[in-house]
Amino acid sequence: MTSRSRIASALAATILLPMTPALAADYDPPIYVDQAPDYQPVEVGSGWYLRGDVGYAFSHPFDDTGNNPGFSHSRTLFDASVGMGYHFNDYLRADLNLGILPSNKFGDSIDTTCSGSTTTTVTDNTSGTITSQTTAVGTTQPCKGSSNALNKAYSLMANGYVDLGTYVGITPYIGAGAGVVYNKYASAIGAKNCVPSTSSVIGSGTTTTTQFNCDDPAGYDGQVSSKASYDFAYSLTAGLSYQVTKNVQVDLGYEYLSIPSAQYVAYDNGLFNVHKGVNFQTVKLGLRYDLW
Questions:
Q1: Which of 158, 216, 212, 222 is nearest to 186 (CA)?
Q2: Which segments constitute the Outer membrane protein beta-barrel domain (predicted)?
Q3: Is residue 158 helix, strand or coil?
Q4: Most buried of 98, 124, 128, 151 (most Cβ within 10 A)?
Q5: What's the whole-number average pLDDT of the chain?
């Protein structure tokens, strides 16, 4: 009886043994998945800002003065620019600006003479026929002479700044920049405004008509010259900015802008001379708007 029990137990173990892995497979350990982090939207405008500035050039090359009563001049010593920049961190930023620089126009007028020819015609008052006509070449008449010049320029500057910390809402900064300036000057020296004229004298039975004809009826342009060029420029800046709102800052600064190779026309004691090298020292007031 004991032998039969042992044989039965062995047979049962033999039958159930292959089923053990199958039963174990039905109870795999649970899989743990880490919870995904919360979605954080990306701020597209983060770090970028817009800016606009106006300035007044208190130091400039356009000190044109003349003692001639015919001297006249006008100048615009204000400049303006718009641009876009980026904050790299709390201390470093950079921007790219497109601007218009100060400009001027000036001129000098004098009394002079214009050359031409004079035709004298004598007409019979009764019949209306020409009784005589003569032409004199190389005659002159009084006219106005003038010289004029202008200077203007536009800039594209890349600037970098170091913000030196914020104290009670005020952030001092220093900076420097480099770029290109489109510079143009033009002048017309010795232009004359020659105007044809006619006069008549009624005599006894005849009318004498004198007509002056200019050599160039449209007038004389004079010695005309102009030059446009793209010149390297650099700048040094310093100033203070104040945080008005979360996104808006007011900027008050000083800028030294130098264009070493730029040429311009100046009035030198009655002469219109071309000089080289333009420098501006400017006080600027601007706004910056952060795009975040």
A1: 222
A2: 46-289
A3: strand
A4: 151
A5: 85
